[in-house]
Specification:
The protein is of the alpha/beta class. The protein has one domain: Alpha-Beta Barrel (TIM Barrel), CATH 3.20.20. The protein is 38% helix and 17% strand. It has 8 helices and 11 strands. The strands form 3 sheets. Strands 1, 2, 3, 4, 7, 10 and 11 form a 7-stranded mixed β-sheet that branches. Strands 5-6 form a two-stranded antiparallel ribbon. A hairpin with a 5-residue loop joins strand 5 and strand 6. Helix 2 runs parallel beside helix 4 and helix 6 runs parallel beside helix 7. The two termini are 17 Å apart. Bound molecules: zinc ion.
Length: 250
């Protein structure tokens, strides 16, 4: 029922697409792209439809680094800017999402839970999802299209552990990625979207330039770099809802 109402509102809003605000970007948040029924998952079929829609409607899919440059006023705002982000590092991102990203030449950022690389994640539903391993990560990174950024070692709620533990979770995951892939790991996604000022301070002290939350909304010039909002795409997201997420952050 709730989903039906959302669909109706999204359908209605789509009439007013020409009113969509300018100088805005949307960061889409994905998790698993696969054939499971976990609420945060998007099916390969829906993911393909969503990417085809971005292509068809000429959205400009830009990298997170590019968005950070725009926010730091080093680059102008493109029209219809979209950033693709994937949290946790599920192996199905390589199997189902990667071929489509490659097909459309869409950049994306995958936030890795460093402690589970090559392993599996047991979801609340009891399902066990395999995680990306280094050979797949390296293959995607070498394409220049996908960058990998830290999402802690063990995916804790960072505000509920000690400052020292939080520091360790952040810097160790950053170090693991740097060690394997080289370059700088400068972007972070807060597990569960949980953070506070001391977590932001740790990130700043360790060379990060931006961090992503799970608060919904569009990114604007005045958005805080360490509190960037995202729009979640999940199992029940219809194409009408996907459109209103893109244009209105609803
Ligand atoms: Zn996560």
């Amino acid at each position: 029922m709730k989903n039906l109402i959302k669909n109706l509102i999204s359908g209605f809003l789509s009439i007013f697409i020409f009113l969509a605000p300018k100088n805005r970007a949307v960061i889409l948040m994905y998790h698993s792209v696969g054939r499971n029924e976990i609420p945060s998952t998007v099916s390969p079929k829906n993911f393909a439809k969503q990417m085809a829609y971005l292509k068809e409607k000429q959205y400009q899919v830009i990298s997170l680094a590019n968005l950070a440059d725009i926010l730091e006023k080093k680059q102008p705002w493109p029209t219809k800017a979209v950033v693709l982000s994937f949290d946790d590092g599920y192996a199905d991102n390589f199997i189902f999402a990667w071929p489509i990203l490659w097909q459309y030449n869409f950049p994306a950022t995958i936030f890795l839970t460093a402690g589970t690389i090559g392993g599996e994640k047991i979801k609340k539903t009891g399902e066990r999802l395999p995680m990306l391993a280094w050979p797949e990560i390296e293959k995607m990174q070498k394409s220049g299209l996908v960058d990998f950024q830290p999402h802690t070692q063990s995916h804790p709620r960072l505000s509920e552990i000690s400052q020292a533990e939080a520091q360790k979770e952040i810097t160790e995951s950053q170090a693991v990625i740097k060690e394997h892939l080289g370059g700088e790991a400068q972007f972070f996604a807060y597990p569960y979207g949980v953070y506070n000022q001391s977590i932001i301070d740790i990130l700043k002290a360790n060379g990060f330039i931006a961090a992503l939350t799970v608060s919904r909304g569009l990114v604007k010039q005045e958005s805080q770099l360490f509190e960037l909002p995202r729009m979640a795409v999940s199992l029940k997201t219809s194409l009408a809802q996907f459109k209103s997420k893109l244009n209105f952050g609803f």
